[in-house]
Amino acid sequence: MPKRTTITNRQRSALRAQHKLKPHLTGLQIKKWFEEEYNQKITPPSISRILSSKYDWLDTANDTQLNAKRQRGESWPELEGALYEWIQRANTQLAVSQDAIRQKARQFWPSLYPETEMPQFSNGWLQRFQNRRNIKIHPRQSEEESFAADADVRMVSICQIIGKYPPKDVFNCDETGLYWKSSPDQSLIHAMPGQENDQARVTLHFCTNSDGSERLPVWAIGTVEKARIFDNTGINIENLGCYWRHNDKAWMTSKIFEEWLCWFDKRMAGRNVLLLMDNFSAHESAYKKVASRLQNTLILWLPESSTAKYQPLAKGIISTLKAHWKHQWLHYMKAEFDHGYNPVTTMTILKAIRWVVKAWEVDLSPNVIQNCFTKTLSGQTDTEAIDKVLLRDIQTSLNQLGVSNIKEPMKFEEFLSPAEEEVTDNIKNLDSITPGLFGAESNDGAYDALPKVPVTDALEALRRLRLFEEQQADGNQPLLMELLRHERLLIEKRMQDQYPSDLNSVFS
């Protein structure tokens, strides 16, 4: 038998093809075929390695790759596999440069090879990696440069379709990030451990119709399955008007958005509604999976790379909501400082969610929503919706905090609309598409547990509120009727709680 020599990519490809053609052959029969075909030795471990997923790329390799000599770098198959998966997903949304690949390799390395010194990832390694995986790097324009020349024309057609639906049946959905412990004091932010700051982030998903008459419950995405404060207070977050989901990055993923789309379509049962969406990767991926299951919803995609101009939620609605939220945050900060507390440490996700829901359901006026839909869909660039009085109040609050509590004040615009809260397909945000490599669920801290409110206490509070409203000169009659209905429910609950004990006493 001739001496053992290096096995080429073409020989590996042929061995894989023979295995697929005759899957009934045993390992020894495959070994015999190879050695007779190429007059070359091969070991069973080598056969198993060649038939593994590591060499799947050979099944679609071109002649250049098959003729290439054995290249270095194959001792890092896990790294190359993770990089290849990341590039495949990321490259459809943004330009992936060679520097970006090196950066991702450096980020992946410590988790994949924690006890091995990190290599330099030279140009030679990068080129060999690209050749092995048939990866080509193409320059791509920025969003502004790649703005579709026919976007305005396409919007005319889109608006014609929208015009066939009543305003109450035209919806738009979008996401934004919220760093709910973000302080206007730069020195305070820098003093916070980076991990804590990362964990104090949620992604918020909003959806409303064009006349503002139907705002769907907020979906919030955090880093933990359930924040401890909700357990300790006995509060069900969905009772606040919010649905909670989680992942390590607090990011909108295709899986979560797939669930949301089905949830939305089910809520629209019996209707025929239009949902405007942008080309965010999670949106597109989720839609492909559930499109055939949508029965009540027509998805209308806004022109690619033009959502900054044509998306109602992104142009005025979300910024107004955040202004109301941060106005509340500033008031809270001042009150905590006045009592000698650090608001960054006393702030909780429960407060953050309550303020989000209040801003969404109460503070945000239907006029703001209507104006933003009208202006953005017509292509008007002047879509600033934040009330000037609100902006002035926020600025005043910032100034008041700055007198004694802020060492390095943040610029007003940076505090109101920080760039890092924008949800887009970029290199940093796409880290979350390779799960399992980084991060762990955060510990949201310990909070004092609250006793569960007895139904008798709730009844007493309700009756006092009803009495207060009845004594007013212009009492709110719809509220009084709702209080009466809720009082009846509480009385029924009290009887249900008491019934088992009463029943047991009868038979004791």
Walk me through the structure.
51% of the residues lie in helices and 8% in strands. With 508 residues, it is of the alpha/beta class. The protein folds into 3 domains: 9-133, no CATH class; 151-433, no CATH class; 455-506. The termini are far apart. The model is unreliable at 140-148, 188-198, 431-446 and 503-508 (pLDDT under 50).
The backbone outline, from C-alpha atoms, is: elongated
Q: Supply the number of structural domains.
A: 3
- First and last CA, distance: 92 Å
Helix content: 40-55%
Q: How would a textbook summarize the main sheet? A: 6 strands, mixed
Number of strands: 6
**Count of helical stretches:** 22
Element string (H = helix, E = strand): HHHHHHHHEHHEEHEHEHEHHHHHHHHH
User: How big is the Rg?
Assistant: 30 Å
Q: Low-confidence segments, ≥5 residues, pLDDT <50? A: 140-148, 188-198, 431-446, 503-508
How much is the average pLDDT?
79
The spatial strand order of the largest sheet comes to 4-3-2-1-5-6
Strand content: 5-15%
* Secondary structure category: alpha/beta
**Oligomeric status of the shown chains?**
single chain
What layout of secondary structure does this protein have?
Elements: H1 9-21, H2 27-38, H3 44-50, H4 63-67, H5 77-90, H6 98-112, H7 123-133, H8 151-162, E1 170-179, H9 186-191, H10 194-199, E2 201-209, E3 218-222, H11 228-233, E4 242-246, H12 254-267, E5 273-277, H13 281-290, E6 297-301, H14 307-310, H15 313-338, H16 343-346, H17 349-363, H18 366-377, H19 388-404, H20 412-416, H21 455-470, H22 477-506
Parallel strand pairs: 1-5, 3-4, 5-6
Antiparallel strand pairs: 1-2, 2-3
